[in-house]
Amino acid sequence: MSSQSKRITLSEAAEIIKDGTMLTFSGFTIWRRPCALIFELIRQKRRDLHLVEVNSGPHSEFLIGAGCVKIWESCWIGHELYGKYGANLSRKVKNKEIIFEDYSHAEMGFRFLAASAGMPFIATQTSLGTDIHNPEYDMLRRAGLRNGKNPKIARKKYETMQDPFYGDGLQILLPAAKVDVAVLSVQQVGEEGTVRIGGQFFTDPEVCRAADTTIVVAEEIVPEECLRTEPRLNTIPSFQVDYIVECPYGAHPTGMFGYYDVDGDFIRNFYMQTRTQEGFDEFAREWIFGMDHTAYINKLGVDRLVNLQASRALNFSTRVKRGQK
Amino acid sequence: MSSQSKRITLSEAAEIIKDGTMLTFSGFTIWRRPCALIFELIRQKRRDLHLVEVNSGPHSEFLIGAGCVKIWESCWIGHELYGKYGANLSRKVKNKEIIFEDYSHAEMGFRFLAASAGMPFIATQTSLGTDIHNPEYDMLRRAGLRNGKNPKIARKKYETMQDPFYGDGLQILLPAAKVDVAVLSVQQVGEEGTVRIGGQFFTDPEVCRAADTTIVVAEEIVPEECLRTEPRLNTIPSFQVDYIVECPYGAHPTGMFGYYDVDGDFIRNFYMQTRTQEGFDEFAREWIFGMDHTAYINKLGVDRLVNLQASRALNFSTRVKRGQK
Amino acid sequence: MERHDFAKPGEYTLADLMTVAASREVNDNEVVFAGTGMPMIAIMLAQRTHAPNLKLIFEAGTFDGRPNVIPTSVGDPRCEGGASRASGLCEAFSIAQRGYVDLGFLGGAEVDEYGNVNTTAIGNYLDPNLRLTGSGGNPDINSFARRTVFIMVHEARRFTRNVSYITSPGWRVKKWPSGEFVHRRELYGSAFRGGPSAVISTAGVFRFDEDTGRMYLDTYHPGKTPEEIKGLCQFDLDISRVKGETAPPNYDELHIIHEVLDKEEIFLPKPKKS
Amino acid sequence: MERHDFAKPGEYTLADLMTVAASREVNDNEVVFAGTGMPMIAIMLAQRTHAPNLKLIFEAGTFDGRPNVIPTSVGDPRCEGGASRASGLCEAFSIAQRGYVDLGFLGGAEVDEYGNVNTTAIGNYLDPNLRLTGSGGNPDINSFARRTVFIMVHEARRFTRNVSYITSPGWRVKKWPSGEFVHRRELYGSAFRGGPSAVISTAGVFRFDEDTGRMYLDTYHPGKTPEEIKGLCQFDLDISRVKGETAPPNYDELHIIHEVLDKEEIFLPKPKKS
User: What are the chain D neighbours of A194 within 8 Å (beta carbons)?
Assistant: First the structure.
């Protein structure tokens, strides 16, 4: 793709993600999640998504609550200290309204590492002896989805073999985590696609390369030449990014190193309110439907955003109230 | 290891590397090679070293010419435009005075990646169909060394298997590259071991973690707090480094991003002179034996070092003559 | 001025007691993996008391950090204060699998006598009473670290004979495909480095016999008795090796917890004045 | 002012001709892997002429670089000028294996009719006449890229019936353990993306028939004839598809090579004035 043609709108970005897409995201639990794009997907009533995530969080709770997700494949979903678990996933698991597949955190990370390197599988010894490897709990197989029809769904959840080189014992071979689309929420992207992430980059480089198509939603689109004076500070090279979207506060209510903190009140209220489907629907009427991202941040209001704003010196907010004091 | 106790001398560092050590290095071809420490190893008459390298260069040509090396396991040895191939390795291969084991460049990189992640092996499809995988050319097996006696030498050069997950076909499983000691030549190390590499970091993070013991030879030992204000700029965390040595011009005649360029004349002369063993011995008498590193850089002289000095703005020398003009 | 004498009942909370007990599990110079909340405070407390050279790892990708402000989670920008390196999760778990980690702090919803822990689902996994968060890094840190310490609420339904789902591997784990229980050492081969070392509950501190893999009571918290704690376990808890009461926090530790680390009262509210 | 008319014999060197021919193998927007020397200049030339949006990768770890000063090698600080990212070799080869790379430029000491290349040893591998550098990234780039272009000195001993050692895989490669020759497609499975696309020698430009995997002469350099070139090959070179003479450099290209890119004459000395 030639330069200068990667810029699209949030709404156009959401349209790239079709019904049934295998999808993954940037970030870690309650940090740098592409929530603005996810709200747009919900507005566009996307269905049958297959989420493959290193770990999950509020962003996927939005999608799951809204009925957009058919399969959730990951290791964790919750809201850190703002909500004990993913109430929407939990409800849909109980009601058998979603297919779930559990791996461990390192397993999911290594699966994306393999996919990002074009390796079909990778060996690890983590989680040996746990029910993660219980053959009865291969949920995609139980759902009849490991039949090879979808080329990105592995024929087995895992395979075992003995190390033939050093006598290091039983190894678990994990299939690469291949996905159709990765959506990244980041601080800065250049006009040609160079991504500069501030702070920990989590698994963003791996999920980017694991995907066939990568959409980057950035707080700011900046001139490439600004980023290219210091290539060591950049996280993802230009040619791994297909589309770019400029979207200030695009990760709210999750946090963005150097830009804004997690909106804990927002997430806590979401968690409490959406422990029933009715609660979720009410939340969606209030915060998702009938508005666009501009209306959303205006509804949040200046005081709230100023309060969350990160100190340029410290990269986090010194104003936000996090505890009881 | 507690803080402040990691600092040792070049001579002490060389003593950590015993006869028979499996050894690897920082850098790439003619850049950031720990030559000062290698000259010290030659002075201390180390023998039977087993070099395991992502790629090789002048530093190993020094060691091989001096008779310190029993096994060379890598993918490439040469001097880039300053010498067509490794004349000392070439001579010793012809004379059957060294055991060599060939992999490809990506294979060696991935082998270190596996070792650095505690994985006993890793899958790849590179180099399928080449003589690298000719079973007759497993040279460590031919030498009787794949008998499991050395726990860091794999029982096979490689293994094959079909991808069981996606039908991605024949895979080569490569054994992790496990080594006893890694020696890194870098720009800056903190007193507690935090490494900050300037420019491309090559495979330094991987070779560091693949080794049981890591020795860092730095142009400068700097206060930890200077490095810890910007953790994203650091390459290797403190606790992966066991010993640190301050040694200005420690990589000469190879280059050091931001500090000095490759000394092309030195390497070209070395290559030309050491195409015979007598030539090597003469080189060693002139540049290695009977001196220490201080005497060595004094012998190089101020003019030569000033000429090689990198521009602080550009990170390379604008004074050095590289071509015919 | 540091005050190392013990605080009196009422001057500290149960959470303070547990945090301090967790902190004392750390030795100086160790590489320690910490999760969000109480474990984070425990390690940052150890860093400021008896283990100034511990190396703190957050699994999101921060190495040897010395944060001045308590992070809200391991993905928080606050993690990077004074850190040696910040990168990502694959590097963190590669480092862990490579064997650098001495100690990890973890939580759990259920634990069995062998230290198997469940954080995935209560009841039948395929038709659960309650789906929880899932594993997170719990099994990974527990697989790779030399010692792991679990911090848990003590209720009889949580200290169970059989956990609903083994999320995190204890001393006797399942060998697949049969699912028969074997000693952890048998399964992990050369990757075996240790396993659960302690459970710190709201009732006491528990340890494990490495050979049998069974849990035993080490100390009981002030106000509890070994028999009472035994009654709060569905399995037959070994209380024969109990040493006495869990040592309470000292004033210096309480000062660091409440006036330095968590003065915002994010994770550990101050004891209420009577 | 750019001058796109062709230079005359004597106004350019054979190396100039080969560099320009290599440069013309690059299409705009492609991701291209380059090694040291002539390939690097060829790509940097393409970047300044018909392929301004090509993405240049150096295997040491620099991505989408736009260096202003020619690097001495791919590990050189000069590689990083204008680059999108600088990191390391594992990332470079991971990107390549993942399938991002369109084109790679490589060299070789020997090549056979199927594009198998040797850079490892001349003669018996176990008892060689001459041990060379070894593979470097040659087989890797050749395994992963959609197309590869080899730049070589043309001598009959180099264009050989059987290379002493297959360092880099051509269109018909060895299937182990038997060593029987099979089409590359058969071995690489879903990783098959292409193979050697051209050889640019000191005599001409050669291409490959994808089905038979056999090399044929595409163009001959000015002053050479197809028959002469056929005589410089140990195998039976197909000259039936020859198109004509290799197009010489134009003045703009020569200006960029000698006055912009390699004015230090590191790799490409200027043509000597007659």
Answer: 64, 84-85
CATH of the domain at D67: 3.40.1080.10
What is residue B2's predicted lDDT score, i.e. its pLDDT?
A: 46
Q: Tokens standing for D9?
A: 């014999």
b/e burial code for range D27-59 (CB count within 10 A of at least 16 → b)? eeebbbbbbbbbbbbbbbbbbbbebebbbbbbb
* Residues of chain C neighbouring A168 (CB-CB closer than 8 A): 189-191
Say whether the ipTM exceeds 0.90: yes
Integer Cα distance of B152 and A167 in angstroms:
11
Q: What is the pLDDT of residues B221-276, one digit of tens each?
A: 999 999 999 999 999 999 999 999 999 999 999 999 999 999 999 999 999 999 99
Q: Do residues C172 and C183 make contact, with C-beta atoms less than 8 angstroms apart? A: yes
Number of domains making up chain C: 1
Average pLDDT, chain D: 96
Question: Which residues of chain B fall short of a pLDDT of 50?
Answer: 1-3
Cβ of B2: how many Cβ atoms within 10 Å?
A: 10
d(CA D79, CA B66): 33
Identify whether A248 is preceded by a cis peptide bond (ω within 30 of 0): no
Question: Does residue D273 sit within a domain?
Answer: no
Q: Which two tokens stand for residue A142?
A: 């139980």
Nearest by Cα to A174 from D56, D170, B164: B164
Q: What's the pTM value of the predicted model, to 2 decimals?
A: 0.98
Please identify which residue in the block is written with the tokens 């054994």.
B175
Q: pLDDT for C133-160, tens place per residue?
A: 999 999 999 999 999 999 999 999 999 9
Please identify among residues 235-274 of chain A the ones whose CB lies closer than 8 Å to any CB of chain C: 255, 257-258, 262, 264
* Mean pLDDT, chain A cut into blocks of 10 residues (325 residues total): 77 98 98 98 98 98 98 98 97 98 98 98 98 98 98 98 96 98 98 97 98 98 97 97 98 98 98 97 98 98 98 96 86
pLDDT at position A2: 45
- State whether B159 and A148 contact (CB < 8 Å): no
Q: Is residue C155 part of a domain?
A: yes
At B193 the three-state DSSP class reads: coil
Q: Which CATH code fits A3-307? A: 3.40.1080.10
- CB D70 within 8 Å of CB D78: yes
Torsion of CA A106, A108, A110, A111, to 10 degrees: 160
Percent of chain B with pLDDT over 90: 97
In a domain, D3, yes or no: no
Chains A, D: CB contacts under 8 A, how many? Answer: 72
CA distance to partner chain A, nearest, from residue C219 (Å):
29
Q: Give yes or no for a cis peptide into D139 (omega within 30° of 0).
A: no
Six token digits for residue C220 = 């009981």
Helix D38-47, helix D14-23: angle, nearest 10: 50
Residues in chain C with CB shorter than 8 Å from the CB of A89 are 131
Where in the sequence is the domain holding D174, given as residue range(s)?
Answer: 14-261
Question: What tokens appear for A17 in the block?
Answer: 């993600």
Q: What residues are paired with A172 via a beta bridge?
A: A124, A160
By DSSP bridging, strand C195-201 and strand C204-208 are antiparallel
Scanning every residue of chain B, which has its alpha carbon at the shortest distance from the alpha carbon of A151? B166
Q: Establish if D7 belongs to a structural domain.
A: no
pLDDT band, very low/low/confident/very high, at D218 (cuts 50, 70, 90): very high
What is the rounded CA–CA span in Å between residue B179 and residue B283?
A: 29
User: C234 by DSSP, 3-state: which?
Assistant: coil
Q: Tell me the C-alpha distance between D70 and D63, whole Å.
A: 16
Residue located via tokens 């999101």 = C60
Which region holds residue D29: left if phi is over 0, alpha if psi is between -120 and 50, else beta? left
Alpha-carbon gap, residue A137 to A102, rounded angstroms: 8
> Does residue C91 have an active-site annotation?
no
- Break chain B into its structural domains and give their ranges: 3-307
